[in-house]
Amino acid sequence: MSTTSNSSINRRVERVSPELVEAAARFQAAILADVAGRRGTLNGRVKPLAPTMKVAGPAVTVEVRPGDNLAIHAALAVAKPGDVIVVDGKGDVSCALIGEIMATQAHATGIAGFVIDAAVRDSHELAQGEFPVFSAGLNPCGPTKSVAGRVNIPISAAGASVNPGDLIVGDADGVVVIPKDDVARIVELAQKKLDAETARIAAIRNGDTRAGWLEKELRAAGMLAEGEVL
């Protein structure tokens, strides 16, 4: 008889380290996305319920059938403090997958936040709270709890590939995913970009308002002739 498990719940996840999570959390999602090659961001439909909400942590991934949250309850049971539960809800907003009760449970167990490509409800209460929730929309209709899903498997959430343990960073601009094995490199590049942008903003405020690279790129694009200047 085969001893291979066919469980839909994977409990063993290699997570990005807490030290790298802390280092990456200092940067905007936009900075991280830029230095990651302008990829890895979730579709803009996934937004924080309040613009002040921020989240950073390793992903616990969930795949569900539209409108059913049974697998999210399983994820709540196996997630570790600091994890971000990321749900591939297929972008469906016909009913909510979580609300105030599940968010309260997640917060009480130390989970860092929810990122859900689907609808949520109790939005007023959640937006006023401290627990970060990112979602694709709102709907007062509740979910079913009867259809099998999967926990901690590779998913695609709002167009972004997410593997269990990958770094998730979200803020007012949206959510970016950084593969766990690439986080150290991305953090180093993010600091260099932040330093460069800080210097550029200071230069603009001091009167240097013309982008030094602009004319070269305009010529390369055929918008300026050789020798022509703005």
Comma- or semicolon-separated keywords:
eight-stranded mixed beta sheet; 2 domains; RraA/RraA-like; alpha/beta; Glucose Oxidase, domain 1; metal ion binding; single chain; two-stranded antiparallel ribbon; 10 strands; 30% helix
How many helices? The count is 7
End-to-end Cα distance, whole Å, is 76 Å
Task: Catalogue the unreliable spans.
Answer: 1-5
- Work out the radius of gyration: 21 Å
Helical residue percent band: 25-40%
Shape: elongated
Structural class: alpha/beta
Number of strands: 10
The topology string of helices and strands comes to: HHEEHEHEHEEEEEEHH
Number of domains: 2
Q: Main β-sheet, in a few words? A: 8 strands, mixed
Based on the coordinates given, report the CATH architecture of the largest domain. 3-Layer(bba) Sandwich
Q: What's the CATH C level of the largest domain? A: Alpha Beta
Would you tell me the overall average pLDDT? 95
Percent strand: 25-35%
CATH topology of the largest domain: Glucose Oxidase, domain 1
